[in-house]
Amino acid sequence: MKRLIRRYMREDDAAVAFEAVIITPILAWLFVGSFVFFDAFRTYNTSLKATYAVADVLSRETDWIYGSDIEGLADVFQHITRNVEQSSLRVTQVRRSTSEYRIDWSYATDGTARLFNSNIPAIQSQLPNMVFGERIIVVETFLPYRPAFNVGLRPLEFTNFTVTRPRFAGQLQFDDGSDPLYCGSSCNFGDGDEEPDPDTDSGPAGS
Q1: E-assigned strands of 5-134?
Q2: What is the distance between the alpha carbons of residues 109 and 44, in angstroms, rounded to a whole number?
Q3: Which helix (H) or strand (E) holds 138?
Q4: What is the pLDDT of residues 77-133, one digit of tens each?
Q5: How far apart are CA 109 and CA 103, in angstroms?
Q6: Verdict on whether the full-model pTM lies above 0.85
Q7: Cα dist. 106→80, 85, 92, 122, 191 in Å?
């Protein structure tokens, strides 16, 4: 038996066609799999950068924003990520009261649920330490991803959560649609962002 094993180990004859049948499916899976996993990491990285871009735009705002503005930023996010699925965006302003975090306002696109004060415990660990009266902007994006090939990576959703502070104002003022200049969900990006009339407006939501 030992002699047979040693002879088998020294044997170097082979059939190229037989080896090709064994190795070709493995090489094909490795090639396709590397493409799918690389594309998944690329998509996630792009969605993260797009989320930072949206948060940076919001942090520079000094005027009121409206639902149409956030809808427009959701379109910008979808364009940057080149997403053909139904991505969504949620923007929430959180303030620190004397003893707890509170939500000033929240707006979400494409059917995503808004955040309420009851949702604070679920995200509190992701919020930074804040002084009393300080406000921050929470930007969340949700990007579905479906692999081009089935190589063991199931369809998933990339969720990004980022926090920023208003740069040039104490808070990001948002109108929920009660202002007469608000043009509704059918508006284009930037519509309804005129300066409101102080004599007729009752003030932005959450101010």
Answers
A1: 65-66, 88-96, 101-108
A2: 20
A3: strand 135-145
A4: 999 998 877 899 999 999 998 889 999 999 999 999 999 999 999 999 999 999 999
A5: 18
A6: no
A7: 23, 23, 4, 15, 19
